[in-house]
């Protein structure tokens, strides 16, 4: 799994170089790191938690660890969540929900990226919390009371 994840990061980095997409200057990352056991991509850290919990409990554990349930803003971050959780269940919690206002999805960390990757026909009327199907990389909304493994993320520290 680690080799596949490293290959994904290398491929994305090369793709950025070839397409002319700029990245943060390397000096920004000189002293930025993640806690042991976390996976780093640029200025963010990610960790898979295999112990299944309800959505709110999963978010609370991520908070204790210093972050939130993962907020996904791109295909790359979606692939990271998929890759990190491949050894676990077929679905994992991500930090997207509409528990505050019906049909107004938001991330638990307050970010407002416009990226979504729902299955066709979703979000549906049932369920306020969003899970990622790791076998295909697409999302669906479901009841927040179900227990799922989950992926946490946080900003890398100095």
Largest sheet: 4 strands, antiparallel
> If helices are DSSP runs of H or I spanning 4 or more residues, what is the number of helices?
3
What is the assigned CATH homologous superfamily? Mannose-Binding Protein A, subunit A
Overall residue-averaged pLDDT value: 83
What ranges have pLDDT less than 50 throughout 5 or more consecutive residues?
1-27
CA-CA gap between termini = 27 Å
Order of helices and strands: HEEHEHEEEEE
The total of beta strands comes to 8
* Lateral arrangement of strands in the main beta sheet: 1-2-8-3
Question: Which characteristics define this entry?
Answer:
4-stranded antiparallel β-sheet; 3 helices; Mannose-Binding Protein A, Chain A
Question: What does this 3D model show about the protein?
Answer:
This protein is α+β, with helices and mostly antiparallel strands. The chain has a single domain (32-155), classed as Mannose-Binding Protein A, subunit A (Mannose-Binding Protein A, Chain A, Roll). The protein contains three helices and eight strands, in the order αββαβαβββββ. The chain has a four-stranded antiparallel β-sheet, sandwiched between helices. A four-stranded antiparallel β-sheet has the order 5-4-6-7, with helices on one face. β4 and β5 (106-107) form a beta hairpin. It is globular, with a radius of gyration of 16 Å.
